[in-house]
Amino acid sequence: MSEPSSPGPLKVWRERDGRLLRLRLAQPKANIVDAAMIAALDTALSRAQGEAAIRAVLLDHEGPHFSFGASVHEHLPESFKGMLAALHRLVLRMVAYPVPILVAIKGQCLGGGLEVAASGHLLFASPDAKFGQPEIVLGVFAPAASCLLPERMGRALAEDLLFSGRSIDAGQAAHSGLLNAVADDPEAAALAWFDAHVAKHSASSLRFAVAASRQDMVERVRSKLARAETLYIDGLMSTRDAVEGLTAFLDKRAAHWEDR
Taking a C-beta distance cutoff of 8 angstroms, is the pair 185, 126 a contact? Predict the structure, then answer.
């Protein structure tokens, strides 16, 4: 089945006789994870969730970069609660999704983009891919990544990225366990994995296998994310420096920290 055209932020179609749901971020080059993108992803996944024939989802992107991250405008005091709630609903839907979500990544995969990618099951990336959570540079933190990264790559490196805001390359990401494979064409690698290992299975049995594999992770992430969201809303966003960091970024100036 060929890829459809779409005027929205996300392209959605099915391949492999309806066995594979394709989702493509379509706001290059940044592919910002804003309210429209979050809603489009959540709607597409929700609508397909009960389709008995689907065996996997492949999420990839247009342009040279997977995503530069979330919308900084939407993190400001007047809008961040709705943005955070919507993003976390999407993350939890993906973490608990009944079939594997494969993610193909090139270029930058940062902030909210990495939170979305890390919510999937198997990640494939090109050698030039970069992964990071730069929120701390803006004076905030990443609630979903705080829950997801220690699950995928181990606490030592996860805390390094969360506390420093730095990025790592695909080689280090693969070594850490974040990635399943590094390939020049990650979309082709993900499709090859699907064709060789999933397409032939019973979709019904596969759903039980996915549920069994993730049941404890789903419970941990759901519980920890609720607490992290409260910490963000009631703690972080009541501080002067959080608002200053976001405002300074939008004003394209250096932030002036007062440590309060």
Answer: yes
